[in-house]
Design brief:
The structure is a single chain. The protein is an alpha+beta fold. It has a single domain (3-197), classed as L-fuculose-1-phosphate Aldolase, CATH 3.40.225.10. It is 41% helix and 16% strand. The chain has an 8-stranded mixed beta sheet, with helices on both faces.
Length: 200
């Protein structure tokens, strides 16, 4: 795929990416410059991903970077997110994944820090949409080790909790990945509140 075609794809994809990022920011799933979002490029020619150090609540087109599978920049300014290996390994592990979202969703992260499992069987919507939500053991953010371990956990559902590091969701497109992240965080909030009302 030519650079000009990828630039056109970036321009066409930006409004939807901006809309999703703003929605997540207003729902409290992004804070500061944390988190990252990506979509697979047409013809599987690489990934369109958010730049490093960018506030997703105020995303601009210039904050998107297209990279090939070796991490080389095809177009865009700035450096791709430090979590690029995580995105690459998930795409490699699941050819049906077209978009990925990683956030430090507070309720989901808080449950994990408290050692409380997110039991999707207790919530109809969570069980239907998310199925099972495995926890990926802690590895330093941005490392290939984290990326490889995360990719091996794929297969039980469209969401994973990263120990001490938020969550990642993936789907056919960015809207589905967002729906999964929203469902995950909403479910975590319900479970947390239920624990407050009825401590075990």
């Amino acid at each position: 795929m030519s650079k000009s075609h990828i630039e056109s794809f970036t321009k066409a994809s930006f409004p939807e990416l901006q809309r999703i990022c703003k929605a997540m920011y207003h729902k409290g799933m992004f804070a500061g410059t944390d988190g990252n979002v990506s979509i697979r490029l047409p013809q599987n020619s690489g990934i369109l991903v958010t730049s490093s150090g960018v506030h997703k609540g105020f995303l601009e087109e210039k904050h998107l970077v297209a990279v090939d599978w070796h991490g080389n920049i095809i177009c865009g300014s700035g450096d791709p997110t430090s979590e690029l290996p995580l995105h690459q390994e998930i795409y490699r592990a699941d050819e049906n994944t077209g978009a990925i979202i990683h956030t430090h969703a507070p309720w989901t992260t808080a449950l994990n820090l408290a050692g409380i499992m997110l039991d999707t069987e207790k919530l109809v919507e969570a069980e239907t949409l998310l199925k099972q939500v495995p926890v990926v053991p802690y590895h330093p953010p941005g490392t290939l080790e984290l990326a490889k371990v995360t990719a091996k956990k794929i297969g039980k559902g469209p969401a994973l909790i990263l120990e001490r590091h938020g969550a990642v969701t993936f789907g056919e497109n960015i809207e589905k990945a967002f729906c999964y992240m929203e469902c995950l965080e909403h479910s975590a909030k319900i479970i947390a509140i239920s624990r407050m009302l009825n401590p075990q």
